[in-house]
Amino acid sequence: MMKKTSNNMLILGVEGALRHVMEEYKLFFRSSERFKRFESYILGPSYTEAKIDVGILSALCKLPAPNFDQVVRTLLIEMVNGGSTTYDDISKFGNLDALWRMIQKSYGYGFAEQSLEKLAILLLCTHLSHSINSPMPKEWQTYAHCFRRSDEPTI
Fold it and tell me: 94 lies in which domain range?
């Protein structure tokens, strides 16, 4: 499998320092369809761990371009419609820890439980807290107070 990872890194132009990241995604890269979608994003020549993570997540969401906000949107829409196929694919072929690290960094999600439902509530309450001119109900403040979007782009 090491040879396959090296070959993928060579094709994509990923530097050796990121081998550990590529190794994490060896199941993802076993599919030529997923590999081609990832390759089509042209994330190089300066790959970073974050770029690879966002590229993998975007490919698993079948997005036309890598975009972390669209990854989250895709997951939330699927959840609202009663599905979890994409989330399950991320669990199997991607990296849920990377997903939730980026959610925490991008949206200020600080809850111990990794829950798309809680994320949706956090986003809604945060939006409401910025939109209404009266105090938020006390029960909602837990969700709205911890929002701080990172100024650093995810890709």
Answer: 2-144
Segment 2-31, tens digit of pLDDT = 689 999 999 999 999 999 999 999 999 999
Residue pLDDT, tens place only, 52-104: 999 999 999 999 999 999 999 999 999 999 999 999 999 999 999 999 999 99
Contact 144/129 with Cβ under 8 angstroms?
Answer: yes
Count how many domains the chain has.
Answer: 1
Task: Report the C-alpha gap between 87 and 137 in whole angstroms.
Answer: 31
Report the predicted TM-score, pTM, of the whole model to 2 decimal places.
0.85
Q: What is the DSSP string of 73-133?
A: HHHHHHHHTT--HHHHHHHHHS-HHHHHHHHHHHH----SS--HHHHHHHHHHHHHHHH-S
Token readout for 2 is 């090491």
Region of 148 (left: φ > 0; alpha: ψ -120 to 50; beta: rest) is: beta
∠ CA 12-37-70 to the nearest 5 degrees? 115
Helix (H, G, I), strand (E, B) or coil at 64: coil
In this predicted structure, what is the pLDDT of residue 136? 66
For residue 29, being part of any structural domain is answered with yes
Task: Decide if 155 is inside a domain.
Answer: no
